[in-house]
């Protein structure tokens, strides 16, 4: 057996010392060959030494360009937030022929992280054709099909996964949100069986969310019981305390009250458009409306502004936003922040000179930074009725490890978060009059053309009727709203909270006491 084969076998069984020993021997015996360096890089990455792994894989590429090496380099660069180089490496890997399923799946995963779901289809399909029984590869392909509007293909792949693994929780949830369920066509019975056999808390969480979603679709009141059980358990597991988010809001208010950004309006119509707001309030809808215009494209939900603020603030905490980072960000040079944001954002665009939307909802926390750093940026904030906002946040499963959504597993925490969001938006309106368009979801639904004209005017875009047919937009959607925004505008979501009016009464009473119109 060759040294390379020894190293790869040891890697496959998780024996990193044996793999490292074989890889080092390979480098010493054949230093002009790339495989030893590549394997040492992979071993370093697998043991958490990412910064050590990258130069080793680069050394392998200097000795021979292989799709496998480029794919794994791209994966590591994504982890290091070096999206530009990651994109170059992934796209170069895609140009090279590869018959290795892992390499192809890795390329696809990098493209997904870059927001290019359409391009990811090709390597995902190739990976599945090579290893059709690999459920991870098939799941990635199914998700990409769903994001790009190929719902029937997605459904077929998800069903194939469940045929092989009936307890595959991620698939149960993905299938539930792929489309609206009906009394005659749903998966409730199968989901109940899967829940009864769930062996893991994370699996039970996803299956309960899937059950709640499907039961909500068909009007079964038991939906709330599953949702409540899932959320209570997950809140316990993450040990969330609303005081954490309250401290961030407090610090934002203190910092920007003392050092208000310029209120000068954006006159140049060349800057990015930020679509912000609480999640599940219509941000994806507005992003689709805007990106249906020929003069602008969607860059998706970019982490570019949070990352730029975090990096330039210099704080050492592991969280992306916290009171210390907000305080430190007050001294960031605005032009440096704007340049850092644009440098990161460009890697997600088809061309450098194209105008784009950034629809990360949580950018409402960064409106002060955006106003300082990007004077030509336009900002649109979605406003939705308080009760529908609270209910919609509570019933949707967001990224479970993301601190952005930790409040959403408790109804009262979500109500408190909504109240602080509204208070912060009032601050931005006072400090930055005219900079932020407050767009009502309900008004958009009831008077689509007038509100769309108002939206385009704020963003410096000429009227284009295509924006009324946003549901025909073929671009990928990678949010829980993917199914909704492929249908014409409707009022189905308005007043939806009243389905569970009795259970939500404490929230309604609290919000009313805070002065909200509920």
From TrEMBL:
InterPro entries: P-loop_NTPase (IPR027417), TPR-like_helical_dom_sf (IPR011990), TPR_rpt (IPR019734), TPST-like (IPR026634). Coiled coil: none annotated. TPR repeats lie at residues 101-134. Keywords: TPR repeat, Transferase. One of its GO terms (molecular function) is protein-tyrosine sulfotransferase activity. SMART domains: TPR. PANTHER family: PROTEIN-TYROSINE SULFOTRANSFERASE (PTHR12788:SF10), PROTEIN-TYROSINE SULFOTRANSFERASE 2 (PTHR12788). This is Tetratricopeptide repeat protein. It comes from Altericroceibacterium endophyticum. The lineage of its organism: Bacteria, Pseudomonadati, Pseudomonadota, Alphaproteobacteria, Sphingomonadales.
């Amino acid at each position: 057996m060759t040294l390379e084969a020894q190293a790869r076998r040891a890697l496959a069984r998780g024996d990193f010392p044996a793999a490292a020993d074989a890889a080092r021997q390979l480098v010493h015996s054949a230093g002009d060959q790339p495989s030893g360096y590549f394997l040492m890089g992979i071993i370093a990455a697998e043991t958490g030494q990412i910064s050590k792994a990258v130069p080793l894989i680069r050394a392998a590429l200097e000795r021979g360009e292989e799709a496998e090496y480029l794919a794994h380099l791209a994966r590591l660069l994504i982890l290091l937030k070096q999206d530009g180089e990651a994109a170059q490496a992934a796209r170069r890997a895609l140009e090279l022929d590869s018959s290795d399923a892992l390499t192809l799946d890795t390329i696809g995963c990098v493209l997904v992280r870059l927001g290019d779901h359409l391009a990811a289809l090709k390597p995902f399909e190739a990976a599945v054709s090579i290893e059709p029984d690999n459920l991870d590869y098939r799941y990635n392909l199914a998700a990409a099909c769903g994001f790009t509007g190929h719902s029937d293909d997605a459904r077929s792949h998800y069903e194939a996964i469940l045929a092989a693994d009936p307890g595959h929780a991620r698939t149960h949830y993905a299938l539930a949100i792929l489309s609206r369920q009906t009394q005659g066509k749903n998966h409730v019975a199968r989901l109940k069986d899967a829940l009864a056999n769930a062996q893991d808390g994370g699996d039970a969480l996803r299956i309960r969310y899937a059950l709640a979603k499907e039961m909500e679709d068909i009007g079964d009141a038991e939906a709330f019981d599953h949702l409540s059980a899932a959320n209570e358990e997950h809140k316990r597991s993450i040990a969330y305390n609303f005081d954490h988010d309250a401290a961030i809001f407090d610090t934002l208010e203190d910092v920007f009250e003392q050092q208000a950004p310029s209120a000068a309006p954006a006159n140049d119509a060349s800057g990015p458009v930020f679509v912000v707001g609480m999640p599940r309030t219509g941000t994806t809808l507005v992003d689709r409306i805007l990106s249906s215009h020929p003069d602008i494209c969607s860059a998706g939900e970019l982490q570019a502004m949070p990352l730029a603020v975090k990096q330039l603030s210099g704080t050492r905490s592991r969280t992306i936003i916290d009171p210390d980072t907000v305080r430190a960000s007050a001294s960031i040079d605005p032009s440096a922040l704007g340049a850092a944001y644009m440098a990161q954002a460009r890697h997600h665009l088809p061309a450098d000179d194209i105008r784009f939307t950034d629809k990360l909802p949580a950018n409402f926390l960064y409106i002060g930074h955006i106003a300082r750093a990007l004077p030509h940026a336009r900002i649109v904030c979605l406003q939705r009725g308080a009760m529908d906002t609270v209910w919609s946040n509570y019933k949707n499963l967001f990224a479970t490890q993301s601190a952005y959504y930790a409040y959403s597993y408790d109804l009262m925490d979500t109500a408190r978060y909504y109240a602080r969001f509204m208070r912060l938006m009032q601050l931005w309106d006072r400090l930055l009059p005219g900079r932020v368009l407050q767009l009502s979801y309900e008004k958009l639904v009831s008077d689509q053309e007038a509100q769309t004209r108002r939206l385009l005017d704020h963003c410096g875009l000429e009227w284009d009727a295509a924006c009324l047919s946003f549901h025909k937009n073929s671009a990928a959607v990678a949010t829980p709203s993917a199914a909704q925004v492929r249908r014409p505008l409707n009022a189905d979501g308005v007043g939806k909270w009243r389905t569970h009016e009795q259970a939500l009464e404490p929230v309604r009473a609290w919000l009313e006491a805070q002065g909200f119109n509920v």
